Amino acid sequence: MGLFIEAQRRDDAVAARLYAEEAASETPVPPWAGQAVLQAACVAGDWNSALARLEQNMKSGLVDRGSYQRQRAVLLTAIALSAQEGDLDRAKTLVLEAVKLAPTLVPAAALAGRMLGDAGDHRRAARIVESAWKANPHPDLADTFAYLRPGVSARDRLARVDQLAQKSPGHIEAALAVARAALDAQEFTIARNALEPLLAAPTQRVAMLMAELEETEHGDEGRAREWMTRAVHARRDPAWTADGFVSERWMPVSP
After folding, report:
1. Which of the two residues, 224 and 245, has the higher pLDDT score?
2. Tens of pLDDT along 23-43?
3. CA–CA separation, 243 vs 167, rounded Å?
4. What is the pLDDT of residue 254?
5. Contacts of 116 (CB under 8 A, 6+ apart)
6. Prediction pTM value
7. If you average pLDDT over residues 204-224, what whole number do you get?
8. What mean pLDDT is predicted for residues 77-103?
9. Which has the closest alpha carbon to 248: 203, 141, 238, 239?
10. For residue 139, how far is the Cα from the chain centroid?
């Protein structure tokens, strides 16, 4: 382990991985080595090696069943995201396994919903997204749910989003999802009613939606600018974060 730590201090990722892999070949596998090899494979984007190491960690008793399922789901989702451009069928198989392992994993549910929706399996797509939404209302899930059926009107999307929002009444993401869909459908009263309870202490997204509402409904650029100014100083909305890094999209590994 000492050589591994020294390699890390030198910022020598290649040597650190080699030392970890050497230690992980021992019996029993040192816990630090099993985890270090898994982490190194993930950082390198070597998902197949990461999956193999995770299986070995599980067999060696280095990870409990719940953590194993969650980590495998994350890795499968990462592979599916990479594979969707070249091998759609493989990507769909992988992400559906990920959803089975971790039904509340938002990136997996959103990707599965999109892929099933594109394939015309709308009921299954809706079930997956709804299940994840109930556990963790998230804008990615709302967006996926709105567009499960390509080509539908903005009013139809609003009806779908409202159906989803009713499964988490009072949640800020439900209100924001309805407001976004209502703005797209030019249903300004619905949008305003959805945002009204949030205006006492608006987040950045709330303020930005209000700015868009004022300009789109009334053409009031002055009010829109006021809301955009409030957005600059408003509380940030939840975002994907890891080790102090904030990302607009989910990534399987901390950068």
Report:
1. 224
2. 777 878 888 888 989 989 998
3. 32
4. 81
5. 92, 122, 124, 125, 128
6. 0.90
7. 96
8. 95
9. 239
10. 9
**pLDDT higher at 94 or 19:** 94
CB 34 within 8 A of CB 12: no
Is the pLDDT assigned to residue 76 strictly greater than 80? yes
Closest Cα partner for 194 from 222, 166, 216, 219? 166
Q: Rounded to the nearest 5°, which phi and psi values hold at 242?
A: -160, 125
Which of 140, 145, 199 has the alpha carbon at shortest distance from 173?
140
Number of alpha carbons in the 13 Å side-chain half-sphere of residue 135: 11
Of the candidates 190, 189, 194, 224, the one whose C-alpha atom is nearest the C-alpha of residue 210 is: 224
d(CA 99, CA 81): 13
Q: Among candidates 234, 209, 210, which has minimal Cα distance to 223?
A: 210
User: How far from 90 is each of 52, 104, 117, 170, CA to CA, in Å?
Assistant: 18, 21, 16, 38
CA-based nearest residue to 162, from 141, 177, 140 = 177
Among 91, 109, 114, CA closest to 99 = 109
What Cα–Cα distance (Å) separates residue 225 from each residue in 37, 78, 166, 214, 217? 51, 40, 32, 9, 14
Q: Check residue 133 and give its pLDDT.
A: 98
What's the chain's length in residues? 255
pLDDT at 150: 86
